[in-house]
């Protein structure tokens, strides 16, 4: 047989297979046909045929035209509503920048997302009602003007609000640049603008919804989590970093909508490739249901005529940079370059005028296509869905905005552009009014406003629904409930971590709040001695435990359960932090005051996921962050990348976060009790950060009257007088280093006849925050009797100098330096950690008792109270090398 004949035979073979396939589809349906193809593939594979791997489908819509449902809304009214929102969103930014050049804002992102949002608002996003949490919707942050503009039509915001966009400090308040529930708790729910955080937060929100359901705490089965993000945003590791969790957990309550306008800030996302195809492969590979919405309805007739697949081939081959070029070019250009590839393609485009070609829409601007995708997404079961919607950045902004590389930052439109915009979207504003760019809202009884309100009311109310507490306040356990920790440990040596974990076990059994606690840990439970909780509470798993654990015959076996309480997240501090946010905001999202306790390796907390902690604070999340194995010299042996000596610096920078570095079990108990009370009884939206160490030592009993001091940040612990002492020093200690100050106190008294007071400082941050607040009041009320801060009260009549020592960088203690009587010398652990023993490390960083004693003597010598020779003698006697390296730079 000649090659030609062979080809012909093969061709007829193909025809036969096609016929069989069509027949099988008719007789057995799509599911069986899909099974059949899988079986065929397997068979081919076993016969040694290597099938090329592709996670991609062709560059066309996933949902074929004949599977598209009928659009249920009034397209005409919806378009008018959307046009008004487009106009008002644009006007808000343009006017803000006209008044205050440089105030910023974005027009082009919402312009590309308008249809994606509006189809959701009119048909999908459900509002929160008393017994239904509604949907949780994460809006692309830079599209916020569109969300405000809609709220304006809804009557939730008025013209004054819009005029105060990005002017939050104007009298009466203004509108935040982006979604910030911290600043607008009556409006926003989810902060999204730090790119990449919304997607990971949304994934864990969806998982947390399941968790509440599986534990019988709240019925969340009807809620969906929608996350809108940009295509450029998917480059952030957090955006895609947790997508396998979503599919592994079968989160069909989660829908991502990626606004693929092919551009980010500087230029194309993938000029030389195709972002939609790249994302399709990543999400399909991860097990998501992927729905591509690439082409608008105008393309359907062409695709129907494309029997030999030339059009699809051309669509597949064209790269994004070129698609962007078609956006900014004329129809004639597209005819020439896109359809000009072959005579067949040219013929396809023949019936169309250049103008028709230019106006052929992309899928993300076609409500029919978007509706079909959303509808398929909410009906899909078994896995999360991602909708990849192709749009145009700056859609409708005319020649100078649409699809241009500079469009992201466009904040102004000249009169000509305004006129074009007005005309294109049919906004009832006259030429004379254009210069003023007025906001427009049709009358209350207009069809548009009535329709929009009717739709929202049918969907359960307005979205976003704000971040106010919907859950009733809890009753915190009283301080007496912690009594066990107020006694000494009977000489038994325990670390603060061990003490905390024991306390935590008790709290979990508390009949009133135990069930509401959400323990979160990223694969370090054993490090912190928490394995007993595996058995006690169980590790949450939606599917329970499908295997017999290897340690099932032991008491503390690894128990996974559908109603398990612990979120054992695996090695992802970011994921664990996202869980913390979901649990810490359930008081508003789900009418339930869940109490998250997130235990992590302190070095991998603020430093690793600081931006998520910031987002937690923006979200008004409440809960406990526990930095375990903390302290640069308290965590021995682990070295540079593990020893945390600066998380309290990060913590100082986060507003509404109370940071504590306790030394004793009873201090922790007081702080935890106060935290539960403040956050869940008084409902203050703050976060507690507590560092815990792993150095074992005997825990003392709680002295009387020290609750206030522990909570507000400091209290005097031990005073030591010496007859005829030449001077007195104040020794401030925290965490495990408090014990070094006590030892230094003894050295100073016994060897150098110096008197001293030792103070336990639990929170430099609290002391400073309060002192500054009082200082501000005094500055602004110069004629009134000055107020005193707690810190000033503590230091009143106290004789300095002050030596402040912690296991953290000196700046932590120096936060209160200017209030220290007689000046402050701070000792701390500036510099990289080292692998060595605690003792060696403390000498190296000069935070051991001997170094503290020398620092105290030197400070006294400075004020002439002891002789310099005494300091020199002490250096020798205490064995300190005067030529030792500087740990901060060594
Ligand atoms: C973590 C982070 N890095 C950078 C930015 C600044 N930024 C804001 S929008 C943007 C481009 C967004 O592009 P894309 O995600 O594609 O959204 P689009 O506006 O195109 O819809 C950048 C870089 C940010 N907000 N967050
Ligand atoms: Mg983009």
Ligands present: thiamine diphosphate, magnesium ion
Largest sheet: 6 strands, parallel
Query: Radius of gyration over alpha carbons?
Result: 33 Å
The helix content, as a percent range, equals 40-55%
**Beta strand %:** 5-15%
Strand order within the widest beta sheet? 10-7-11-12-14-13
What is the global morphology? globular
* Low-pLDDT runs: none
Mean pLDDT: 96
Q: How far is the N terminus from the C terminus?
A: 81 Å
Give the helix tally: 34
Helix/strand structural class: alpha/beta
Topology, number of strands: 20
What does this structure look like?
The protein has 890 residues and is an alpha/beta fold. Strands 10-7-11-12-14-13 form a six-stranded parallel sheet, with helices on both faces. α2 (75-99) crosses α19 (447-458) and α33 packs antiparallel against α34. It contains 34 helices and 20 strands. Helices cover 42% and strands 10% of the residues. The protein is globular. The longest helix has 44 residues, at 3-46. α24 (606-618) links the parallel β11 and β12 (623-628). Bound molecules: thiamine diphosphate and magnesium ion. The site of thiamine diphosphate (TPP) has 19 residues, from α3.
């Amino acid at each position: 047989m000649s090659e030609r004949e062979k080809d012909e035979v093969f061709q007829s073979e193909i025809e036969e297979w096609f016929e069989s396939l069509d027949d099988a589809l008719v007789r057995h349906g799509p599911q069986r046909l899909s099974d059949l193809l899988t079986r065929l593939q397997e068979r081919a594979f076993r016969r040694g045929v290597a099938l090329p791997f592709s996670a991609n489908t062709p560059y066309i819509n996933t949902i074929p035209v004949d599977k598209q449902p009928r659009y249920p809304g009034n397209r005409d009214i919806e378009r008018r509503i959307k046009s008004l929102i487009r106009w008002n969103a644009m006007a808000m930014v343009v006017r803000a920048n006209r008044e205050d050049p440089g105030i910023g804002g974005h027009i082009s992102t919402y312009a590309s997302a308008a249809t994606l949002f509006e189809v959701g608002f009119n048909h999908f996003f459900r509002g929160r009602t008393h017994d239904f949490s509604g949907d949780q919707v994460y809006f692309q942050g830079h599209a916020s003007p569109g969300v405000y503009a809609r709220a304006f039509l809804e009557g939730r915001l008025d013209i004054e609000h819009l005029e105060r966009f990005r002017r939050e400090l104007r009298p009466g308040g203004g509108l935040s640049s982006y979604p910030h529930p911290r600043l607008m708790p009556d409006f926003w729910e989810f902060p999204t603008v730090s790119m990449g955080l919304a997607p990971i937060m949304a994934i864990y929100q969806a998982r947390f919804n399941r968790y509440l359901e599986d534990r019988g705490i709240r019925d969340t089965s009807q809620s969906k989590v929608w996350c809108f993000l940009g295509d450029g945003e998917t480059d952030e590791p957090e955006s895609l970093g947790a997508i396998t969790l979503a599919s592994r957990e079968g989160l069909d309550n989660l829908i991502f909508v990626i606004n693929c306008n092919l551009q980010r800030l500087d230029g194309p996302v993938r000029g030389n490739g195709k972002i939609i195809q790249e994302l399709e492969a990543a999400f399909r590979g991860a097990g998501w249901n992927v729905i591509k919405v690439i082409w608008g309805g105008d393309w359907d007739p062409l695709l129907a005529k494309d029997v030999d697949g030339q059009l699809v081939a051309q669509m597949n081959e064209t790269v994004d940079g070129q698609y962007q070029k078609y956006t900014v070019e004329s129809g004639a250009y597209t005819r020439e370059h896109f359809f000009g590839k072959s005579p067949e393609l040219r013929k396809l485009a023949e019936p169309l005028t250049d103008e028709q070609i230019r106006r052929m829409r992309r899928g993300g601007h076609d409500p029919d296509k978007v509706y079909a995708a959303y509808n398929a997404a909410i009906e899909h079961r078994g896995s999360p869905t991602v909708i990849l919607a192709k749009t145009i950045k700056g859609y409708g902004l005319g020649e100078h905005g649409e699809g241009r590389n500079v469009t992201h930052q466009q904040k102004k439109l000249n009169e000509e552009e305004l006129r074009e915009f007005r005309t294109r979207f049919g906004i009832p504003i006259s030429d004379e009014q254009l210069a003023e760019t007025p906001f427009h809202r049709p009358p209350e009884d207009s069809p548009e406003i009535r329709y929009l309100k009717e739709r929202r009311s049918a969907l359960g109310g307005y979205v976003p629904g704000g971040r106010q507490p919907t859950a009733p306040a809890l009753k915190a356990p009283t301080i007496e409930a912690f009594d066990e920790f107020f006694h000494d440990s009977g000489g038994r040596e325990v670390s603060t971590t061990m003490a905390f974990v024991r306390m935590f076990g008790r709290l979990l059994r508390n009949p009133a709040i135990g069930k509401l606690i959400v323990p979160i840990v990223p694969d370090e439970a054993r490090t912190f001695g928490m394995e007993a909780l595996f058995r006690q509470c169980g590790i949450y798993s939606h599917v329970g435990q499908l295997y017999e654990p290897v340690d099932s015959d032991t008491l503390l076996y690894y128990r996974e359960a559908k109603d398990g309480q612990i979120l054992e997240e695996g090695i992802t501090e970011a994921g664990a932090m996202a869980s913390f946010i979901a649990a810490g905001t359930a008081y508003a999202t789900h009418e339930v005051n869940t109490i998250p306790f997130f235990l992590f390796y302190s070095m991998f907390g603020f430093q690793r996921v600081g931006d998520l902690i910031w987002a937690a604070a923006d979200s008004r999340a409440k809960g406990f962050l526990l930095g375990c194995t903390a302290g640069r010299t308290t965590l021995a042996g682990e070295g540079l990348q593990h020893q945390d000596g600066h998380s309290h610096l990060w913590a100082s920078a986060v507003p509404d976060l109370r940071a504590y570095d306790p030394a004793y079990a009873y201090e922790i108990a007081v702080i935890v009790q106060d935290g539960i009370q403040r956050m869940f009884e008084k409902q203050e939206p703050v976060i507690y950060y507590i560092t815990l160490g792993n150095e074992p030592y005997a825990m003392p009993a709680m002295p009387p009257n020290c609750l206030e001091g522990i909570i507000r940040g400091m209290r005097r612990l031990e005073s030591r007088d010496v007859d005829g002492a030449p001077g007195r020093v104040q020794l401030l200690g925290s965490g495990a280093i408090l014990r070094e100050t006590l030892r230094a106190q003894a050295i100073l008294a016994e060897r150098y006849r110096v008197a001293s007071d030792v103070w336990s400082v639990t929170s430099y941050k609290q002391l400073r925050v309060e002192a500054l607040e009082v200082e501000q009041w005094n500055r602004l009320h110069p004629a009134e009797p000055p107020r005193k801060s707690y810190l000033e009260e503590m230091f009143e009549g106290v004789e300095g100098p002050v030596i402040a020592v912690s296991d953290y960088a000196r700046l932590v203690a120096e936060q209160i330096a200017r209030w220290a009587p007689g000046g402050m010398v701070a000792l701390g652990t500036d510099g990289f950690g080292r692998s060595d023993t605690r003792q060696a490390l403390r000498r190296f960083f000069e935070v051991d008792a001997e170094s503290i004693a020398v620092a105290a003597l030197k400070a006294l010598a400075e004020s002439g109270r002891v002789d310099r020779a005494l300091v020199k003698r002490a250096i020798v006697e205490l064995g300190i090398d005067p030529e030792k390296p500087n740990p901060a730079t060594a």
